[in-house]
Write a structure and sequence with these properties.
Blueprint lengths: L1 H10 L11 E5 L3 H13 L5 E3 L10 E5 L6 H13 L1
Antiparallel strand pairs: 1-3, 2-3
Helix pairs in contact: 1-3
Length: 86
């Protein structure tokens, strides 16, 4: 599911960090946009954590998505769809 999510982000030309870890960062790099996107995702039933300074360096704001064994392809597609609608 992690690979499916990363691939979806890449296809949407969204910035992420390569790897196999189940926490997938979406690099937003803008504090206000990160907050708005987290609110949009939550309004659409997607739990995602916005990370800003001092957790990450100034200007490196991101959203962390946690994949788990319970996620199904439809769950990943739903999250990607919510991102696409933003």
């Amino acid at each position: 599911m992690t690979a499916r999510f990363r691939e979806g982000l890449t296809l949407m030309r969204l910035e992420t960090v390569a790897g196999q870890h189940p926490v997938v960062p979406l690099m937003v790099r803008d504090t206000d946009r990160t907050a708005r996107l987290v609110a949009h995702l939550r309004a659409n039933g997607i739990l995602a954590m916005g990370l800003g300074y001092p957790i990450v360096p100034k200007g490196d704001d991101e959203i962390g998505f946690q994949m788990c064994a319970d996620h199904m392809p439809a769950d990943i597609d739903e999250a990607l769809s919510a991102l696409e609608q933003f």
